[in-house]
Design brief:
alpha/beta, Immunoglobulin-like, TIM Barrel, 11 helices, disordered N terminus
Length: 504
């Protein structure tokens, strides 16, 4: 193998049992921003009721950048923490028409008075994120405060695109958001969540959580009002929109949500009447959720390529801001039934890869940081024995279970840090995906191998750090100095090395 001098830019081929890996640090794509998760819904319960030792364990798993004595990370080092700003359904109790106590949220606002002792359980983990050095925080609303809605509730009317909001309260709404954003010094604020979904009462007259739809015209109007308030109050928090319920609503112009789709053009095309790209407090970002669009592979890739192309044309970044396993995904994997193992972890890792590689996502976030459900929606789970669910049995205390999905996300989040650039890389190994990143100080490769084990022969005698997640390992650290890297079957492995020590 020819020896290369380090010149800061690399074009290189590696060989792994006859298979070729090619990467080029001269060809870069998006600059990575963050990896995150949200505090819905369980953190309000856990942060308020659970023993300190268990809360600390959860915070360590989610936020820590420390390693144990063997060099293995103690946590996944999230770089973004999402905080649900409640609408006040908790105070309403059963009259909120939200059946599940776990999914009712407190409000900081009572009348015209702010009570910063509210949402203390969630504040515990927000504080923990900051203490652990998480660089970005984002506050998001599922509903406006109940005293500002049309029906006095935190759920929608059930009518397509009908925003549950009293427009006469727009000044109170912008005051509320600015006050909360400044109090917690959120880096970002997302005022709407999944605007395409109705979030209304079902046949029983009850709903499952806070939420409201909103159409593009109203969303643009309210965002302008909020942007003006942020300027007037010198609020440093940046506004992120629109958190589309599915990625197709970002690019489709003829969908089943005709006044809630085409959102990249609607908000970031200068010729659109709903253009928001000139608002100085609106982040040049389009945010959407990867739900229901991840299977089969052909659809996953094609849609993400369309999102990436459209975002590039609009000169904005794309954030995948919420995902877990929902639906049956073309028969590949079902949302029902908790899975702490590698099947779900590998599926999720492929989605992360596709959002980053095919759509050029700069930020990627999971849905529930902690779940009590018998569902594939958590990174960490809390159950009492075999008793699963958001119920009284798990309300005051329960056992904690880390999932392989947690550590799979960590293969990205812990090592692909804010400011790194994605580089061109490919691998000719069946059933193995790869992404590469650099900050000119270190290079990071993440391999998602759902196929057979193989060996890579790396052309350097300097240390390469590997972190491997398998059915029996969680970011397990190994220092490799002979250039021979073992990639297990059904694994996710991250390679890290110093840029200026790549070659002899």
């Amino acid at each position: 193998m020819k020896k290369y001098a380090w010149i800061g830019l690399i074009l290189m081929c590696l060989y792994a049992q006859g298979q070729q890996i090619t990467f080029d640090t001269r060809k870069t794509f998006q600059t990575m921003h963050s990896f995150g998760a949200s505090d819905c819904w369980s953190m309000a319960i856990i942060g308020k009721n659970y023993p300190e030792s268990k809360k600390k364990q959860i915070a360590e798993w989610l936020f820590s950048l420390e390693t144990d004595a063997s060099g293995t990370p103690k946590g996944i080092g999230l770089s973004l923490w999402r905080f649900n700003i409640g609408a006040g359904s908790f105070e309403q109790g059963q009259t909120s028409k939200i059946t599940n106590e776990w999914r009712r949220a407190e409000s900081f606002l009572t009348g015209t008075t702010y009570d910063w002792e509210k949402q203390k359980g969630q504040q515990y983990f927000l504080d923990a994120a900051k203490k652990n050095g998480v660089p970005y925080t984002l506050g998001f609303l599922n509903s406006s405060p109940v005293q500002m809605t049309q029906n006095g509730l935190a759920i929608g009317s059930g009518k397509l695109a009908e925003w549950n909001f009293n427009k006469d309260k727009i000044d109170a709404w912008t005051d509320f958001i600015a006050t909360v954003s400044n109090h917690f010094q959120f880096t970002f604020l997302s005022p709407f969540n999944e605007p395409q979904w109705d979030w209304g009462p079902g046949k029983s007259g009850e709903a499952s959580q806070e939420g409201t739809p909103i159409n593009n015209v109203d969303l643009a109007w309210a965002t302008r009002k909020l942007a003006t308030k942020f300027q007037e109050t010198h609020t440093k928090t940046r506004i992120v929109i629109p958190e589309a319920g599915q990625l197709n609503y970002l690019v489709d112009l003829k969908s089943n949500r005709p006044c809630q789709d085409g959102q990249i053009d609607e908000f970031f095309n200068v010729n659109s009447p709903n253009y928001l790209g000139n608002e100085p407090t609106v982040e040049k970002v389009i945010a959407g959720h990867s739900y229901f669009t991840t299977s089969p592979t052909s659809r996953r890739v094609a849609l993400r390529q369309a999102v990436g192309k459209k975002a590039q044309e609009a000169q904005i970044n794309y954030w995948q801001s919420e995902f877990c396993i929902l639906g049956d995904n073309a028969g590949e994997i079902k949302g029902n039934g908790v899975d702490l193992g590698m099947k779900t972890a590998l599926y999720v890792a492929k989605v992360i890869h596709s959002d980053i590689h095919d759509a050029n996502a700069t930020s990627w976030s999971w849905w529930l940081a902690v779940s009590a459900n018998d569902f594939k929606d958590g990174l960490i789970y809390t159950f009492n024995g075999q008793t699963k669910g958001e119920n009284d049995a798990n309300k005051l205390d329960a056992e904690l279970y880390d999932s392989k999905t947690l550590w799979a996300l960590g293969n990205y989040a812990r090592f692909v840090r804010p400011g790194m650039k994605r580089i061109e890389v490919s691998i000719q190994q069946p059933d193995c995906l790869i992404t590469g990143f650099t900050d000119q100080k270190s290079n990071v490769f993440v391999l998602v191998n759902s196929g057979n084990a193989f060996e890579m022969n790396w052309p350097s005698q300097h240390e390469i750090k590997t972190y491997t997640t398998t059915e029996h390992q969680n970011l397990a650290f190994q220092s490799v100095r002979d250039g021979k890297i073992q990639v297990p079957s059904a694994s996710i492995i991250t390679l890290v090395y110093s840029s200026n020590k790549l070659f002899n």
